[in-house]
């Protein structure tokens, strides 16, 4: 088989948006099939290339998923690479990007087993309103909005979860409630399109799981520059990425998420993205580009 599109057991036929890529690959004459990442009987050496797509179930078992990625990468070309899978599945990558000069939402990582006082953290940082969430998360896992009068609930949230896993604390960005997030999709280093994601009324999460909406939007030069800076900061090739931007206090773009593993790429909103992704795969398979693993 030419291409295995990696998915999870809950979506063995892929998330519908990723089927646009599947159809594009087949239309280009390639053999391509969805494969569940934890299928114990699949031999990854049977695929010339494995591309991670709808693998949306690793957040409760990250180490198992990372171990799979390393095994798969030993048998075939894996996009994105196993190194990036390990780095990007823990949101401490935001701190790494900040250290490399990239504009990101300020982020504090609280290590599992530590004892902290949320009120002291927020006072020290000068954050009146905050978001507390899991450091390994998909679709807003364990995300909690902490208002000034809700710090007791925030502390209880940490005391329930922090004994078992790493958590994040970030300032709440008010623009999320008004203009949402702008997500730039990048394939082979170039932005193919962007979508504006808005949260439902009364919510802070822009995911469609919680009623969020999506529409195409042309990114500005400052958005593109921030996305390029994030790619440059990685230090190794990135075949695909989604950069989720919010507006900071001065209107500057700030990275909320920089997704390199299994981001939704909104193929349904851009045939150009499908064509560019298929073209990148064709160039690799025909030897016109170097392996990126």
Description:
By secondary structure, the chain is an alpha+beta fold. The protein has three domains: 3-84 and 271-285, Rossmann fold (3-Layer(aba) Sandwich), CATH 3.40.50.20; 93-103 and 175-260, 2-Layer Sandwich (D-amino Acid Aminotransferase, Chain A, domain 1), CATH 3.30.470; 108-171, Dna Ligase, domain 1 (2-Layer Sandwich). It is 30% helix and 24% strand. The protein has helices at 19-27, 62-73, 82-88, 93-99, 118-125, 151-161, 175-178, 221-234, 271-285; strands spanning 3-7, 32-36, 49-54, 77-79, 108-110, 130-134, 144-146, 167-171, 181-187, 190-198, 213-216, 240-247, 253-259. The protein has a five-stranded antiparallel beta sheet with strand order 11-10-9-12-13. A four-stranded parallel beta sheet has the order 2-1-3-4. A four-stranded antiparallel beta sheet has the order 5-8-6-7, covered by helices on one side. Helix 1 (19-27) crosses helix 9 (271-285) and helix 2 (62-73) runs antiparallel to helix 3 (82-88). The chain is globular, with a radius of gyration of 19 Å. It starts with a strand and ends in an 8-residue tail after the last helix.
